[in-house]
Amino acid sequence: MTDTRLMEGKVAVVTGAGNGIGRAIAVMMAAHGAKVIINDIGVSLTGEGGSASPAEETRDAIRAAGGEAAISTDSVADPESAKKIVQCALDNFGRIDAVVNNAGILRDSIFHKMTADDWKSVVDVHLNGSFYVASAAAQHFRQQESGAFVFMVSASGLIGAFGQANYAAAKLGMTALSKSIAIDMKRYNVRSNCISPVAWSRMVSSIPTDTPEQKARVEKMMQITPEKNAPLAVYLASDRAAHVSGQVFGVRKNEIYLYNQFDLARVVADVDGWTPNSIADVAMPGLAAGFREPVTAAGVFPWEPI
């Protein structure tokens, strides 16, 4: 196997790069030759406060290892601010080649207790923020006829999760956004893929530990470091992944998954058309074999991570 620097000469923007998975991706991209824009506004897990310190710490780590990086403390959740993130890459390094949409916050709550603010704040950062940054970068990708997007999504959206309706909806929206970009921008050699990561970071540190089962789950997750997700992100942003677009991957420790995407499971038809009663008597029994009971990610991955 080759051991070359996959992002030599590239310029990458990584949002939410002040901590956790975003920091791990930014550091590894720099180690592979990329000049990196570290975007982070330094807020708490729920979106309060603000500080440049997390971004500065990531930048310092990259520079200490001999890499090049600059910071942006602009918010992804505002379209004009998001344009400044992309402009930061142009101002500092003259171009932009890759965007990793990773920034996020959590406002977990069981659905019937979730407020409108809980919903809007999470959707604004994850889904709207990803669109704003991707849209700003897309204008340059189109002109240069190259570019790569990596969207950090979640099993909460792909599979299901308890108490995360806002987060799950936003993450599944990001998955659809990525696929749409892959379709729309293929003609310009622009690629877009998703990674559903598993790692112990701020974004999962709020998982409850009220029961022995929850405690055991958290203890296992704490063994999976954010760095495990970085190699796939580097690969997908590099030219070696020129043939990969519109896909949804997952990473859990040393495992890499390829997720199925929505397709037809079963079909029934009646040449005379359906009535509510014939649907109940014929259509639903015929379709029921294709039903899937809603589950959480814990029910889909019953084995220990490798």
Write out key terms for the chains shown.
about 300 residues, alpha/beta, Rossmann fold, eight-stranded mixed beta sheet, about 40% helix
Question: What does this protein structure show overall?
Answer:
With 306 residues, the protein is α/β, with parallel strands linked by helices. It has a single domain (11-258), classed as 3-Layer(aba) Sandwich (Rossmann fold). Helices cover 41% and strands 14% of the residues. The chain contains ten helices and eight strands. The chain has helices at residues 20-31, 53-64, 79-93, 116-144, 155-158, 165-184, 212-221, 230-237, 276-287, 297-300, and strands at 11-15, 35-39, 68-72, 98-101, 147-152, 190-198, 248-252, 255-258. The protein has an eight-stranded mixed beta sheet, sandwiched between helices. Helix 1 (20-31) links the parallel strand 1 (11-15) and strand 2 (35-39). Helix 1 (20-31) packs parallel to helix 2 (53-64). The model has no long low-confidence stretch (mean pLDDT 91).
